Amino acid sequence: MSLLVKLDLAPTGEPTKRSKCPPDRLLAGDPDYTTWAQDASRDGTVNTGVWEATPGTNRSIKGETFEYCYILEGVVELTEEGKEPRLFKAGDSFVMKPGYVGVWKTIETVRKIYVVVG
Questions:
Q1: What is the pLDDT of residues 39-53, one digit of tens each?
Q2: Which one is predicted more confidently, 51 or 1?
Q3: Local confidence band at 1 (pLDDT 50, 70, 90 cut-offs)
Q4: Cα–Cα separations (whole angstroms), residue 116 to 28, 29, 38, 77, 82
Q5: Which among 8, 12, 53, 56 has most CB atoms closer than 10 A?
Q6: Cβ of 19: how many Cβ atoms within 10 Å?
Q7: What separation, in Å, do the N-terminal and C-terminal C-alpha atoms of the chain show?
């Protein structure tokens, strides 16, 4: 097993998970979520992969997790509770820290690399 893992930025294999937005978090649209999990720490507290979402708007609640995102394609607007909306597009990256609560609006189908810790 190699300790150096290259993430596949355009996975063509079967996704590890397909899902919908939970009804209690859905604000608009009917987004589909697709995940290609690519690696995890031995204890499962760190997970990496590629995630894709079709247009729609939902509540985003991080709880105790820390998430780094790098946008590969698409456009999203994130509005942290009590803050102004921020737009992120291909080439942008951001971190949502534990306790983050806000609105995630996918404007154009988005694909991102994620690293979740927690």
A1: 999 999 999 999 999
A2: 51
A3: low
A4: 25, 25, 12, 20, 24
A5: 53
A6: 12
A7: 24
